[in-house]
Amino acid sequence: MIGFVAAGLAGWATYVVISPRAMRSLSDRIAPHLLTRTTQTPTPVASAAVRHAGLSWSNEDLHLRRIAAAIVGATVGVLFGQGDLFLADPQASTPALIVLGAITGTLGLRMWMTSRAESRRRQALHELPAVCDTLALSVLSGTSLAASIEELIPGSSGVVPGELAEAHAAYDGGVSLTEALYRAAKQPVHPSSARLYSLLGHAHQSGGRLSEALNELARDFRADLQRSLTSEGGKKALAMYAPILALMVPVTLLFLIYPTLVSLQQLAGNP
Fold first, then answer.
1. In this predicted model, what pLDDT tens digit does every residue of 135-154 receive, in sequence order?
2. Containing domain of residue 6, as a range?
3. pLDDT tens digits, one per residue of 42-76
4. Most CB atoms closer than 10 Å: which of 33, 87, 147, 195?
């Protein structure tokens, strides 16, 4: 019976973790009854970790999904404690297994978000040179910065165009373009993106030869991308050759040392 209850809890918690709308379904149903005295609902605030991972979660959604992930892990611990997962008489370890499972579930969600954020950082680094070149050509043709960003957004998809779209949306909402770009430069997905947004904001505020500055920045981004690709290739090569070397070195040493050991044994046995 406990196994069925635990499995049901695990299924519900798993659905909560993977469903993008599960957290808001209940609130959407009761919101009209609770918000009769307010004219508008506050916009959900997302933490930097959630935004960097490209997730449309608020802080409340993140907390609830952490709880759901902990429930999934704790449920697995209960199943282990009940002996339902091929363990024999582990009743004494049930509390420890529950705690360990909850911690594992929470850490698993955090690792998944970190992996998504790292993938988006690599994607942003690949996008930055092309975005700089596109904006430089648009500005060079006489288009204003705001119009150049507006032209870039519909035909582009990715991390950097998405951040520029958020800045332009803030600009459409009444915030100055300089302030919107400076806000985007505070916590971008990739740290190098802050250089682009700061440059755009400063150029819009004080003027200057923006197209030349964007071309120079694009060259810097390409150099950073080349260094990143070289470093990533070295890491992959090390990960590929490390197991081979780990097997070859002991075997080679064994073949080199074994004849010497046999000779020493023969000398020791025949005085």
1. 888 888 888 888 888 888 88
2. 2-118
3. 444 566 777 777 676 777 777 888 888 888 888 77
4. 195
In contact, 64 and 23? CB cutoff 8 Å: yes
Contact 132, 210 (CB under 8 A): no
Q: Please give the Cα distance from 168 to 70 (Å, whole number).
A: 38
Cβ-proximal residues to 218 (8 Å cutoff; 6+ apart), any chain: 128, 129, 132, 133, 136
Residues 57 and 136 in one domain: no
pTM (predicted TM-score) = 0.62
Segments in the chain forming alpha helices (H):
2-18, 22-34, 48-52, 59-81, 94-140, 145-152, 159-172, 177-184, 193-206, 210-269
- 6: which residues sit within 8 A by CB, 6+ positions away? 75, 78, 79, 82
The total of structural domains in the chain comes to 2
Note whether 89 and 191 are same-domain residues.
Answer: no
What does DSSP assign to residue 141? T
Question: Does 40 share its domain with 68?
Answer: yes
CA-nearest of 209, 177, 195 to 131 is 195
Please, what is the angle between helix 193-206 and helix 210-269, to 10°? Answer: 160
From the list 197, 183, 54, 65, the residue with the least C-alpha distance to 118 is: 54
Output the domain CATH number for residue 144: 1.20.81
Q: Domain boundary residue among 118, 143, 164? A: 118
